[in-house]
Amino acid sequence: MELLWDGIKEAFFLIVSGDQEIWAITWLTLKVSGVATAISLLIGLPLGTWLALRDFTGRGCLFSFINTGMAFPPVVVGLWVSIFLWRNGPFGDLGLIYTPTAMVIAQIIIATPIVIGLTIAALQQLNPYLRIQLLGLGASRLQATFALWRESRLLLLAALMAGFGSIISEVGASMMVGGNIKDQTRVLTTAIVLETSRGRFTVAIALGFILLLLAYLVNFGLTVVQQRTTRSKDIQ
Amino acid sequence: MKNQYNLNHKDTGKPFTFKILIFVIAVIILTSCSGTNQSENPPPQPENDQIILATTTSTQDSGLLDFLLPDFQAQSGYLVKTIAVGTGKALKMAEDGNADVLLVHAPAAEQELVGKGYAIDRQLVMHNDFVIIGPPEDPAGIKGLTSATEAMMKIMNSNSVFLSRGDDSGTHKKEIAFWNDLGEVPGGDWYLESGQGMGATLRIASEKGGYTLTDRATFLANQDIVDSKVMVEGDSRLLNIYHVMVVNPEKWPQVNYPGAQDFAAFLLAADTQAKIGSFGIDRFGQPLFTPDGGKTEQDLGIK
User: Do A129 and B7 touch (CB under 8 A)?
Assistant: First the structure.
């Protein structure tokens, strides 16, 4: 238990002292996971919406695949992405292995099924007549889609948070495709693995607290947005 | 007409999915029932039948432990839980009483642990050696050198990429010792710290066209999947010496001391030593480790 307390103190010290390396690692973590979340949103939101609003054969089957994708183990994603990006792999010439870009790619693959799956769920819980009514009232397909998104924004923001949460806490893929190279691809989770393997548990625990704090701040921001929109809706 | 707006939520996939689910569960249940193959001579059952072995990634990654442990488990009835980590963590585990026995290769740090009283019965088990590997193009021009420090100086002066483990492992400590001998503190764009195990670091070195210091066993086990070649070998300072140590039960009464002693004795037994000396010949044409049971470091030419 003393170890945990030391870890908290160390975390506080690392943050306050403005340790260069810790800041760089934290910033890279935020950048990689932030970009990956943004791109998975750009892919997942339209795709999820499209799938939720269409009826076609094999729909249930496809949804079950997407929902399985939400449980993709990051190490498996990491392995697959590595095989593609290694120099002797099909995309080896791009020289992306062991770069932050490779980590973003892996994290997009992890987060996108989550965003798609939760977007589908968010839109399917709306009253199906809503869209027909919107179209009947003369809204264009695009306008109707935006109206549906506004209507389900609580759940869509939850989808965003789930996507971000899954990749900022992910270690297997980042370790494999990033390589945990100091000053280049070391992020908080891989640094925690390293410090643990070094036996420097206090630092590892401190990094864990910094990671939690980072995740908390991002989710706090998103939650504020989420809850504010609800309240203004209640007033109207 | 096809229902364009998805008014009714009928889920045509459901009964089919359900059948698949039933099938999968049935398969799992059936397969888990079979395969309980009772051996004819059950091994002895020690009171505390679990041993935690803290060891370096190299013994695990090379496959040596997979080769030796089944024998030990069958003979003694102990179940060995291998925790393969960097030497830094392995030693820390012993210090914290989280391991029963150690098989590691960082002599200076080991002696310190013994000095502090956390580990006892330190005995030489075997050695293999480190090699400096690098890309076939050899931009630093070190191929064939016999001095490890000279080679590392050349790598540094030519700004060739060098991969450091950077994880306080035995291999990392060895590398740092060389830099210390040179009186240099490596740093810059050419010096990359992976913070990972030897296998992953070799892969990164190969992908980046860089040099690295590696134990020969892990290199041989990975040589088919990396482009790197051996550049420097044979320097007596490149010897990689493995000792077995038992965690001191006077410091940590909850450790499995009898099990740890049995394991250490097993490693030093003649049969095991012979097996260590033969390990790897079938796959690599040369043994990966040289058995040293009963010898001392002086015998290996180290003061």
Answer: yes
Q: Is the dihedral of CA B150, B153, B157, B160 positive or negative?
A: positive
Whether the per-residue pLDDT at B40 is higher than 60: the answer is no
Q: Which candidate in A56, A129, A198 is best for mutational testing of the B interface (most B CBs within 10 A)?
A: A198
Q: d(Cα A48, Cα B214) in Å, to the nearest integer? A: 48
ipTM exceeds 0.90:
no
What's the CATH fold of domain B129-238?
A: D-Maltodextrin-Binding Protein; domain 2 (3.40.190)
**What is residue B43's DSSP assignment?**
P
Q: Which of B196, B201, B222 is the best residue to mutate to test the A interface, defined by the most A CB atoms within 10 Å of its own CB?
A: B196
CB contacts, 8 Å: B15 with chain A? none
Under DSSP, the state recorded for B238 is G
Q: What is the pLDDT of residue A80?
A: 95
Query: How many angstroms separate the CA atoms of B105 and B199, rounded?
Result: 17
Q: Is A197 in contact with B192 (Cβ distance < 8 A)?
A: no
Judged by CB atoms closer than 8 Å, whether chains meet at A194 and B195 is answered as yes
Q: Kindly report, as residue ranges, where domains of CATH 3.40.190.10 are found in chain B.
A: 50-128+241-294, 129-238
User: What is the distance between the alpha carbons of residues B197 and B187, in angstroms, rounded to a whole number?
Assistant: 20
Dihedral of the CA atoms A67, A69, A74, A76 (nearest 10)? 140
**How sure is the predictor about A31, in pLDDT bands with cuts at 50, 70 and 90?**
very high
Q: What is the pTM of this model?
A: 0.71
Q: Based on the number of CB atoms within 10 Å of its own CB, is A15 exposed (0-12), middle (13-18) or buried (19 or more)? A: middle
Check: CB of residue B193 under 8 Å from CB of residue B113.
no
User: In sequence order, what are the beta bridge partners of B103?
Assistant: B55, B244
CB B254 within 8 A of CB B234: no
Bridge partners of B52? B81
The CATH T-level fold of domain A2-226 is MetI-like fold (1.10.3720)
Residue B26 is predicted with a pLDDT of: 65
Angle at B290 between CA B286 and CA B294, to 5 degrees: 160
Strands B211-215, B101-104: pairing kind: unpaired
